[in-house]
């Protein structure tokens, strides 16, 4: 396949991903109020004092409904998104390596959703720490767009980093990545992990640590996965 053919393939993959996001966002837009109650209010359940969600511009409530629809669309379309990504990569694989595409799609989807679930398990405790930091000196009023951006950025960050063992398995099975390489460069990986956690999370030390520690555990799990998947050639 030539370079132009790759570009054409990429263009159609992007078009299909965009269409899937639009289709999956429609039901989320219709039921955005239910999603708001279930997703945005849940992390506040342990916060003390309880934050108040506010909007400060006439169109902000409309914008939050659109953002909730798009965010929900990403989650609903996750299986199709990963399918398109792996199908784009598959032409560069050998025939025996293409057999891992279907398991990789399933594993990527499961890992992504597990990352989001793990994030939402930790969020109530994180927000409790953050809201208690100032005690009762300051009343917590969260702008709804800022708060949703905080939730979305953190949950998607967890979803992405939970893909690390899946990527490790695929690259190890292809012979590109070795367990020895991961072990030998573990110190560099630790530094990179904390840098990634600082970039992907909101600008506070608590959010960074909440992402960094699971990522360190996932790196260790990736070493184990690589040892299982590695096939010397």
3D structure, described in words:
The chain is an all-alpha fold and 233 residues long. The chain folds into two domains: 1-43 and 51-161, no CATH class; 163-233, no CATH class. It has ten helices and two strands, in the order H-H-E-H-H-H-E-H-H-H-H-H. The protein has helices at 3-30, 32-40, 60-76, 78-89, 101-132, 144-161, 164-173, 179-184, 186-200, 205-229; strands spanning 52-54, 141-143. The protein has a two-stranded parallel sheet with strand order 1-2. Helix 4 (78-89) crosses helix 5 (101-132), helix 7 (164-173) runs parallel beside helix 10 (205-229) and helix 9 (186-200) crosses helix 10 (205-229).
Provide key terms for this protein.
single chain, 233 residues, mainly alpha, 2 domains, two-stranded parallel ribbon, 74% helix, 3% strand
Helices, strands, pairings?
Elements: H1 3-30, H2 32-40, E1 52-54, H3 60-76, H4 78-89, H5 101-132, E2 141-143, H6 144-161, H7 164-173, H8 179-184, H9 186-200, H10 205-229
Parallel strand pairs: 1-2
Helix pairs in contact: 1-3, 1-4, 2-3, 3-6, 4-5, 5-6, 6-10, 7-10, 9-10
